[in-house]
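Morning F.,

Quick status update on the modeling queue. The single chain you submitted on Monday has been processed. Sequence for confirmation:
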Amino acid sequence: MFTSLQNPLALAARLLLAALFLPAGISKITGFAGTVGYISSVGLPMPTVAAALAVAVEVLGGLALILGFGTRFAALALAFFTLVASFFFHAFWDLPADKQMVQQLMFFKNIGVTGGLLALAAFGAGGWSVDARQSGR
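Structure tokens below.
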């Protein structure tokens, strides 16, 4: 039954995941100074370089997911990026108990997103993608 839904579901997965990353990357471009400041606030080194890297990963990765181009690599890169960012920017365990809830929610949302990205990396973009066209499927 689900075999006939594989391609539309893979496309939906790619688009829904891209909906998280592409707008975030674009907002980092338009608010670049704020992004650098936010990265500085958690103590990461070279915040300008880190912000530029975040923009590149989110925008290029988001576009790759939309197109289904280099999907497995893009999904792995975004999964790694999301997992690492979660530990730096949603460290709920370092907050007082009354301030943990939102950051804990964001942390575990990112863990779930990472899982979705890993599934996409494992199973590929599906038949409705540039990857499939290039492989002749």
